[in-house]
Amino acid sequence: MAIVAWREQMSLNYLPLDQEHQAFLKVVNYSITAAHAGDFDGMERVFEACYDYVRNHFSHEEDIMERISFPDMKAHMQAHRTFIKNISEFRQKYEKAATPVKKKEAAVKTADFLSLWLIGHILSRDKLLKPYLVRLRNLPPRMNYDSPLGV
Ligand SMILES: [Fe+2]
Ligand SMILES: [Fe+2]
Predict the structure, then answer these.
(1) Which one, of 68, 90, 65, lies nearest residue 77 by Cα?
(2) Tens-digit pLDDT profile for residues 68-83
(3) Model confidence at 148, in pLDDT bands (50, 70, 90)?
(4) CATH T-level fold of 13-136
(5) Which ligand sits nearest to residue 128's alpha carbon?
């Protein structure tokens, strides 16, 4: 899997979420380099960064979906839950790999999964949010606590 470049079509025109997606894209690209180099310390950092992403970004995105009454919220949250399950399965396989060769194979599979997942999720699921994000502007101040730079 080649390094993934940010494309304009991935943008939601909403800075807080775009910046989080771009930051995770860097993690994904780091995972490709680390996996192919057999850099196992680097892969540990990748898994930790995945858990941070899940904790911070998914909860941020789901909070926004709730505030703007996004109609497809349930399916989108389910896609997030599936990713959490997938990533822990990839980690288990990686941890269980008995030899450095097998560990490297598991690392490459993880990196391939991450790059396909991120592009696919942004372009198919997160993009659906784009037309609804303007609703943030019209929320009462107590519900619109995101950066004013965002919209
Ligand atoms: Fe999402
Ligand atoms: Fe997202």
Answers:
(1) 65
(2) 999 999 999 999 999 9
(3) low
(4) Four Helix Bundle (Hemerythrin (Met), subunit A) (1.20.120)
(5) 1
